[in-house]
Automatic annotation (TrEMBL):
Belongs to the SAICAR synthetase family. It comes from Onishia taeanensis. The gene is purC. It comes from the Bacteria. Pathway: Purine metabolism; IMP biosynthesis via de novo pathway; 5-amino-1-(5-phospho-D-ribosyl)imidazole-4-carboxamide from 5-amino-1-(5-phospho-D-ribosyl)imidazole-4-carboxylate: step 1/2. CDD domains: SAICAR_synt_PurC. GO terms for cellular component: cytosol. One of its GO terms (biological process) is 'de novo' IMP biosynthetic process. PANTHER family: MULTIFUNCTIONAL PROTEIN ADE2, SI:DKEY-6E2.2. Keywords: ATP-binding, Ligase, Nucleotide-binding, Purine biosynthesis. GO terms for molecular function: ATP binding; phosphoribosylaminoimidazolesuccinocarboxamide synthase activity. This is Phosphoribosylaminoimidazole-succinocarboxamide synthase. InterPro entries: SAICAR_synt/ADE2_N, SAICAR_synt_PurC, SAICAR_synth, SAICAR_synthetase, SAICAR_synthetase_CS. Its EC number is 6.3.2.6. Residues 7-231 form the SAICAR synthetase/ADE2 N-terminal domain.
Length: 237
């Protein structure tokens, strides 16, 4: 597959056209950001770790019948994905209270949420990804009611699969965000799933093993990502 011109460069990933109009190359860079890009840093090995982590998780989700854009690894930091028409809506599931939920509602971090919550956010960096609802998404044309229903169902299905996977590795899946797009009329999971876009805690100690280590200046960010991966069977060699 021929890698062609850059289509888009985000905070931590770059996307490239290929000689196949239905496929793109997704490159994971070592760049790390927090607080809407206000804090940026390069962390050695991060691109490789997140690329392999994402490939493993996407494989598990595909095995469970969840459609994803992932087609295969291309290199240590690159993978081939289907070209989706992305929907500008993030789907967030929270199993345990943390982060913005605690700040918004004044609830205590660590409270188990039963049932798990589901939220929608608009992908808009300039507006700091504001929280929205299904009515707003439909009114402004960000997603149709049918698309929203399918995205919600798939997001909860992902939760069932990954909560069990991380529990086997002695970890708690606290919360996560997903992005979806349309490929040939079908709603498909896009973007990535890595410790950059979820919260993972050690089940016994509640040690944070995700991007909060970067946000909160705890150090050992990539070491924590690799530890998560090893616990669920990923090799980074």
């Amino acid at each position: 597959m021929e890698k062609r011109q850059e289509l888009y460069a985000g905070k931590a990933k770059s996307v490239y056209h290929t000689d196949d109009p239905d496929r793109l190359i997704l490159e994971f860079r070592d760049d790390t950001s927090a607080f809407d890009g206000e804090r940026m840093e390069s962390l050695a090995r991060k691109g490789m770790v997140n690329n392999k982590f994402n490939a493993f998780i996407m494989g598990k989700l595909q095995e469970a019948g969840i459609p994803t854009h992932f087609d295969g690894l291309l290199s240590d930091t690159e993978c081939v994905v289907k070209k989706l028409d992305m929907l500008p809506v993030e789907c967030v599931v929270r199993n345990i209270a943390a982060g913005s939920l605690c700040r918004r509602l004044g609830v205590e971090e660590g409270q188990v949420l039963t049932p798990s919550t589901f939220e929608l956010f608009l992908k808009n960096d300039a507006q700091h990804d504001p929280m929205i609802n299904e009515s707003l998404a439909e009114t402004f044309g960000w997603a149709t009611p049918e698309q929203l229903k399918e995205m919600k169902a798939l997001t909860y299905k992902v939760n069932d699969v990954l909560k069990a996977l991380f529990e086997e590795g002695g970890m708690l899946l606290v919360d996560y965000k997903l992005e979806f797009g349309v490929f040939k009329g079908q709603i498909v999971l896009g973007d990535e799933f890595s410790p950059d876009g979820c919260r993972l805690w050690d089940a016994k100690t509640r040690e944070k093993l995700d991007k909060d280590r970067f946000r909160q200046g705890l150090g050992g960010v990539i070491e924590a990502y690799e530890e998560v991966g090893r616990r669920i069977g990923i090799s980074f060699d």
